[in-house]
Amino acid sequence: MNEHLFNTVTPPSDGDDSMPETSDRKDDHIRIIEEEDIETDGAGFADIDLVHEALPDVHRDEIDTSTSLFGHELAAPIVIESMTGGHPNTTKINRALAEAAQETNIAMGVGSQRAGLELDDEALLESYTVVRDVAPDAFLYGNVGAAQLLEYDVDDVERAVEMIDADAMAVHLNFLQEAVQPEGDVDARGCLDAIEAVAADLSVPVIVKETGNGIARETARRLADAGVDAVDVAGQGGTTWSGIESHRAAAVGADRQEAIGQLFRAWGVPTAVSTLEAASVHDCVIASGGVRSGLDIAKAIALGARAGGLAKPFLAPAGQGTDAVVDLIETLALELRTAMFVTGSASIPELRETDYVLLGRTNEYVTQRQR
């Protein structure tokens, strides 16, 4: 989720050009996500049944949900996925998210830092830097676009690391979104080489993440071979960035792009399938895209993921404040703990070994891909 999570082009205003276009996109995306129908189903978690253990032989409250990500100990395998930053209006959101990540000891990513790298605006920069200010101990990761790596060198990406004192850096892949944007960057040539160069020389681990369309096995293998430290599949299901850009295109009268956005609204590899495929070739996979509960996170971990990530479900609570975000995290953690209890999993490593059954479209998809 994408010039992550919020990156749009604003329709022409009544002569007010004070806010640069890259920054305004962030604000527009929030409005569209809050006001429009931009959800799709099909992530595949409904097709995953964890096998029930009637004699779990463990005390629920003694179950260990902790996990390690790049050597950082987390209380639970929950990630607040890259959402926003790059517009003064997003500072409040990032503050609430980061404060909650600090309080509950889970991971959090920021949205694309392109605006922070390219625009000299103190209020805009604060929308990113606030996360480390209020979360000195949390696992935080930065975010740049793969297309921008064709313009940036490693030193530029290091600036993004330094901006939030990041523990890792995500490189997002959002080429379908770019293809729907009337002003999108559709030159994907050379991106893998650029990712490989950054992965080799950056001072922190590199995560490559999709933005709602999934990462297939073959692509995950290429990323593993390129030295990428983790893959966030961000599969089909949940927020559709093709749909968001379709709304944006409609606002500026770009009828053809609007129609293309709707046509590709549900495009991609379903999250459950993408998790299975990526985990078969890479040992550190984050599952996101339509993850909506702690049970979904448990299923993703059983499929091979190290953690599960959510973005849109955190947006409304973030607008209410830190306590609302913490409440959602605690609910997710209890849902996860309950799933672990009824599968007899006393720890996250045990959950990764629990039995599951593939049903429906997900089973058909996996079967066809194995032919």
From TrEMBL:
One of its GO terms (biological process) is isoprenoid biosynthetic process. SMART domains: IMPDH. Residues 1-26 are annotated as: Disordered. Residues 40-113, 187-354 form the FMN-dependent dehydrogenase domain. Involved in the biosynthesis of isoprenoids. Catalyzes the 1,3-allylic rearrangement of the homoallylic substrate isopentenyl (IPP) to its allylic isomer, dimethylallyl diphosphate (DMAPP). Belongs to the IPP isomerase type 2 family. This is Isopentenyl-diphosphate delta-isomerase. The lineage of its organism: Archaea, Methanobacteriati, Methanobacteriota, Stenosarchaea group, Halobacteria.
